[in-house]
Amino acid sequence: MSKIIKVYCEGEQGSLDAFIINKLLPYPSILVEPVGGIKGAKSVVQALEKRAIEKTDFYMLFRDRDFDKPITGKPALEQMGSLYEYCSYRNTIENYLFNTKHFFEFLTTENILQKCAVQNEDDVKQLFIKAANRIKIYQAVRHTLGKMRSGEATFGTKLTAKSGILPERLDFNFCRTEALKVIQKAVYATSAWNEHKFDEILASFTKLFNDDFINQFNFLIYFQGKDFATALVQILYQTFPMKKYYRYARDQFEYTNFPDLIDLHNLLKSKYEGN
Q1: I want to staple 275 with a disulfide (CB 3.0 to 4.6 A). Which of 26, 195, 227, 270 is the partner?
Q2: d(CA 232, CA 134)
Q3: What are the angstrom distances between the C-alpha of 234 and each of 140, 242, 262?
Q4: Using one digit for the tens of pLDDT, what is the confidence trace for 237-246?
């Protein structure tokens, strides 16, 4: 009798998360179950496991890293606070889908190269770099807020209603001022959440996100994928079919290009085979 292995993930049925996880499963009988947003996801997973008719041999929650765990120098699958919670190496699932070759192919297929002022893949690379530079200060602020949190965070990292909606301004002074307001509104403020500490951490990220960092495409690891997508749309045109691009990119997706996703495949394989 085969083992019952479950991978809980963010999103809904048919979401990018579920689609990509399904592409890396070592055995088709492993179950992928989306649980919606990450907030409260652990409680949802525990409730589902308690109500399960058949005992699960192994289960895990695979989630976006977002700004909840610092990015390390090693592109590997990482555990979060609990034994069954794992996060991606890249910031969000969308980060795995931005590929200059696939983006150029998509523009060609959709016959919108001229509309996007793109002639070749090098133009796409410059487009990606321009979008990354557009939001690098905002991303430095989001990483700073994420790093300042400890335990059960009482403030988020966004300056807007949700990821993918960019602030009205992206300059340093505006983003810094708005981020300090986020901290000041925290329900349970601590002495560690102060302006001096904020500026110290922010300086480290603004230094990290320099021209070499951007030109080496490290922003595809660190930056929030939905924010990056919005920056691209703002540079291109308002009705750019980003969701259609995601569908195209996910069909071209190969998990073997990403060490952390290979780790996830191997973990599930070992659990299924009893190792």
Answers
A1: 270
A2: 9
A3: 20, 11, 34
A4: 999 999 999 9
